[in-house]
Amino acid sequence: xxxxxxxxMFEKSMKEHFAIGAFNVNNMEIIQGIVDGAAKQxxxxxxxxxxxxxxxxxINYLKKLVEAALEExxxxxxxxxxxxxxxxxxxxxIDGGFTSVMIDGSKYDFEENITLTRKVVDYAHDKGIxxxxxxxxxxxxxxxxxxxTEEAMYTDPDQAKEFVERTGCDSxxxxxxxxxxxxxxxxxxxxxxxxxxxxxxKIPNTPIVLHxxxxxxxxxxxxxxxxxxxxxxxxGVPDEILHQASLSGVSKINxxxxxxxxxxxxxxxxxxxxxxxxxxxxxLTPARDEIQKTVEFKIKNVFGxxxxx
Length: 309
Ligand code: G3H
Ligand code: 13P
Ligand code: ZN
What we know:
Layout: H1 7-16, E1 20-24, H2 28-40, E2 45-50, H3 51-57, H4 59-72, E3 77-84, H5 87-95, E4 100-103, H6 110-126, E5 130-135, H7 147-153, H8 157-167, E6 171-174, H9 193-202, E7 208-210, H10 218-226, H11 239-247, E8 250-255, H12 257-273, H13 280-303
Parallel strand pairs: 1-2, 1-8, 2-3, 3-4, 4-5, 5-6, 6-7, 7-8
Helix pairs in contact: 2-4, 2-13, 5-6, 8-9, 10-12, 11-13, 12-13
The structure holds glyceraldehyde-3-phosphate, 1,3-dihydroxyacetonephosphate (13P) and zinc ion.
């Protein structure tokens, strides 16, 4: 099956109330782990590369690795640019064979975000490629942030409607309390489902994307720490909350941190248990297996996309 855009998978996800996992990729083992896991679950999947991942792996290598995955498996796979910082990066990915790009204009003010997003949408749509945009600020909510400042960071439902109408974007990343990385919450994890509901009322036909949505799987954090790591107090979005999001209109759930933890935990374990190991296959094999296991668990038990191809 050739690479697909996210259009059909999102349509199905909105109709049947499940979410599609979008997993960040940097190398062969990560791609294999994700795609093998998704294929075992007979699930659509989105592979996404950030601009720093593209700098690291190089666009042609990523493309060819994904092509190899497509030859092996018969599931819908989209290749997506994550957090495209500017028009030029989006254009390079579209020209390089990606089927979806994100233009992240969330650092700009509303009007500038619209202008930049519109420019990317015009270029992408002309070539049959879809565009994810972002509205709202995804920073972690610190303890000392006052209520007014906190509210201002969340996506405003009325603005979301205007933004989607004026940009023509295909999907929208929103801010409802998640943040990137391993330290998402100081106290209890909490997402603003009330805001999500209002956004869905305003833009019922636009697929919604949740960034910063790793669980920060406690067993993996513990495994890293047990084997020489130092990641104290890491905390993510619990599976039950992500499951609720996937039932409440979120179509795409972004996961990077959990796969980093999966890979690192297994590599640390091998090294600490046998310091004589120096064959990369000895530690990359369990790392790849842990990624596959993690992806399968999420697809099956959290996102609900098993057998949704
Ligand atoms: O949201 C960002 C992703 O986790 C990618 O991170 O820029 O370090 O590749 P990166
Ligand atoms: P996490 O850091 O929670 O995995 O989020 C990843 C992400 O949003 C990639 O765009
Ligand atoms: Zn993100």
